[in-house]
Amino acid sequence: MSNKRKKAQGANLAISRPALALVFVLFVFSMLKAQVPANDQASLEKVVSEINNGHPAAALKISAPLAEKYPQRPEILAAHGLALLDCGEFFKAQALFERAIKRDADHPDARLGLGELAAGRLRLDEASGHLRRAVASSSFKLRALQSYAKCLHDLDRHSEAKTVLDRALAEVDQIPEREKARIVNSIKIFAALGNTLLFQIPDSFKTTSVGFSTHENNIIIPAELNGRESVKFQVDLGMPGGLAISQALAEKLGLKIIGEEMGGNVAREYTMKVGLIDSLRLGDLVVRNVLVHFMPEPKFVGGSDGNLGKVIFQKTNMSIDYPQSRLFLFNRDEPGLQSKRMGPGKVSKAIPFWNKSHILVFAGINDMEPTPMIFDTGASVPVLNLEYYLEHIDPNAQVPVPKEGQPKALPFTMKSLSIGGFTFKQAFSVAIDLSFLFETGKMHYPGIIGASVLQAATIHFNFADSVMFIEKKPDL
């Protein structure tokens, strides 16, 4: 073969390879842009509607077959991921968001999911970057704006958070009245906060510990407010906020009201006033500028003066030593301080959790596959969603008629609960209709891990890395 002919063939190959690559890219792009049939598009719109209305379990039944049918469509992958996320399946959700981003780096719904995941792991700067890209054109625009505003608020950028919520009121049509009231309330609070740095912990803080008592398995610790008022609070990791006290105690302290928010429990919703406390002392730790809610009709356990929520504790790393009745707090930026507290007991493998409105971990009930559960020191016993109980544990159970104003409830004995490689046996439990709580919170989980299950152990929360460890003592 002549040299001229060889050179011509080489030139053809040099041209054909990038040409083939271009053809492939155009083919993939055309597949992504191809229209989804009208019936499947209607199903996707139903998924979006169910998620927006707080029914992620219903959305999941539609989104799962869609995602299987269209494994390359980023809008379907992202919607399916958000349905999974709202059901607590944060690992599966993350994988779907990442797949969607590979197909469309700017897909707003995938960015929304990644932003909420990052915020739930307290990676707030990363979260704000994702959420900023989500708000422009997400199918879940109201949710994207609210998530972005909350992220900015958690970064103490309250004025920017207010601007984002102002935008929500201006740009989103047909906001439900309950949601609109929440937004208006948040706007007023963000405006009042201005440049306030909330829940401030001194840079010099290393570690402290506080002894606690228990009442019906609930942890009660001593504290001090504003340098003068001795109080005792329940440690309630199931409470999304920072601190809840009675209206009477707020008046005694002379606290200024800066706004109000909606709160609720398994049976009803109520309005709470919001204010600021200058300082909260726990052992040797003094936390400044604590956002506090005033409960209208408080029913605090064990004669306590209020509840300390997870926002306080996630500013630190925390260990709850049940056998020694002691709570330890550590500087979150120095994980070695907490590591020294681990042992000489048998320590579980790291248990990842996702920390959104609640702390979610995976646990196995009665030897079943692990499922997402709320970890809540404020629940004295394990609680299962009644719907989950009737579907997976006892479909023939007879549920008593509840008293007026109370949810349906059914006591039962949980045979076992497995978490982190440990199995805890025989726990008195209750199945409760959690539909009201789930609908108002736009979530859907199988249940709650109550404090009683883990009282033979020490629980180590590493909020910096979003993992926890369970330590069983050698003699327990």
In short, what is this structure?
The protein is an alpha+beta fold and 476 residues long.
What this model shows, in words?
- The chain is α+β, with helices and mostly antiparallel strands and 476 residues long.
- The protein folds into 3 domains: 40-193, Tetratricopeptide repeat domain (Serine Threonine Protein Phosphatase 5, Tetratricopeptide repeat), CATH 1.25.40.10; 207-315, Acid Proteases (Cathepsin D, subunit A, domain 1), CATH 2.40.70.10; 346-472, Cathepsin D, subunit A, domain 1 (Beta Barrel), CATH 2.40.70.
- Helix content is 39%, strand content 28%.
- The protein contains 15 helices and 22 strands.
- The chain has helices at 3-33, 38-52, 56-69, 74-86, 90-103, 108-120, 124-134, 141-154, 158-171, 177-193, 247-253, 310-313, 335-339, 386-392, 435-441, and strands spanning 207-211, 213-215, 218-225, 229-235, 243-246, 257-264, 269-282, 285-295, 306-308, 316-321, 326-331, 346-347, 351-352, 354-355, 359-365, 371-375, 383-385, 409-419, 422-432, 447-449, 457-462, 467-472.
- Strands 1, 10, 11, 12, 13, 21 and 22 form a 7-stranded antiparallel beta sheet that branches.
- Helix 2 (38-52) runs parallel beside helix 4 (74-86), helix 4 runs parallel beside helix 6 and helix 9 (158-171) runs antiparallel to helix 10 (177-193).
- The longest helix is centred in the first third of the chain and has 31 residues, at 3-33.
- The radius of gyration is 25 Å and the shape is globular.
- The model is unreliable at 10-15 and 20-33 (pLDDT under 50).
